[in-house]
Amino acid sequence: MAAANATAATAAEAAGVETALCIFPQVRQGREPWRLCRALGSGFGVEASGFRGKRVGAFLRDAVGNRFEAGKVSRRQASRYSALVCILTKEVERTLLIRPSFDVRPLMGGTDGIFRGLHRHYFNSMLSVLLPMLLESNCTAAATAAPGAGAATPSTAAEQLHQQQQQQEQQSAALSISGAFEALPLSGTMRHIAMTAVKNSPTPNVLASMLLAEQRVVSLSYAKGYELSPTDVCLLTNFVSSSLALRQLESFTPLCLPSINDRGFLHAYVRYLTPRLAFVCLSSPADSIRFHHLANHCNKLFAMLTNTGCLAAIETSLEYAPYALPRCLWGEIALVHCALFVPSLSQYFSSAFGDDYKTDLSKQQRVYTLYASAAELIRNAKRPAHTFVETTDEKVYVWLTLEFFFFCCVPRWINVSTTLVEQLAKWIREQQPFLFITETPPLVHTPQHK
């Protein structure tokens, strides 16, 4: 919990927002949390600034600051809750609702790296832009589609409790589908080899199999009837890449993925083939026989990737990532950054930053904040919609359609035409087979010969 608070506070400082993650017994007792929060926040000048509180189960995320920024930060912190569930399952929430004074910290020993990894990846990537947008739209859609939407305000305490439970379920469902992940760019031939390597399962209880290159996904395959949500993929990549122990030893480790079962553990077989490439298998039961089957399968997979040249291609792609766009697309214009998100794939591409931004994380975060601010202006607009925002340092262009979201940033003194923006977006979309995972084959059970 301390790690979650520390990383959240670090991120909020950049936006001038004070945040806290609290457990409120008053919420469980049926009291109105907003009045309590306003009373606690009166010393921070709530009347002149923005105050936002988002309740998630036994937790309440508070943000005090600029009205606009506080709302954005409150929505962005939802991923912290998923990370907590990933480590401890949702049973920790049930315990806290019964015993609000229960100290969770002993259960989270050694998990600082996972929370810090989540913070580092989230606030230094397009996730900080996309997740709040997707979460808000999915929450709105879930609330609209829910039975009794728009009904009269509940009058009794029982009705209020029931409505709160419905809202929590809607928020949980929206969060599970609101993620996005980044694929490692790879040629069609090499992607096919990587897909073939992971789709063969040595045991019938494997639910998912994948290759992870740091925070990027190389290939993945699911068992029939199962599919990881984008949020689960993000949690899994962060869990694997942020754990030093998993990098050092071949292991079978428990973890919880909310979209499959938020109250129980799956087991992940994790083995790093190279210092930056990991093979991961999700299995329901864990035993020594299954571990040895997966270990033998991993040896064959490694040999296949090596002999076909796929492993070398993955390592080369990692060296170039993040990719810079060809200069022929934008000529003499000093392109700072651009990104494309495809909702149907739940994947995004984020280009390399310009020379003046490559090593300056504060400048990169400023660009992401501008993207989020610009997207907020047209969040409820009819699609397609676009907006153009100019500051003292940069100009950003955001184009939202039903098929894709496009983001572009250039220095303030550069004039950007709609034609150029459309040309950039068109070129990136044409590169989808290289930049994205366009097909996910089902797992095939291939028993090992004795």
TrEMBL record:
Residues 150-169 are annotated as: Disordered. Residues 344-431 form the FUZ/MON1/HPS1 third Longin domain. Residues 209-296 form the FUZ/MON1/HPS1 second Longin domain. InterPro entries: FUZ/MON1/HPS1_longin_2, FUZ/MON1/HPS1_longin_3, Mon1. It comes from the Eukaryota. GO terms for biological process: protein targeting to vacuole; vesicle-mediated transport. PANTHER family: SAND PROTEIN-RELATED, VACUOLAR FUSION PROTEIN MON1 HOMOLOG. This is Uncharacterized protein.
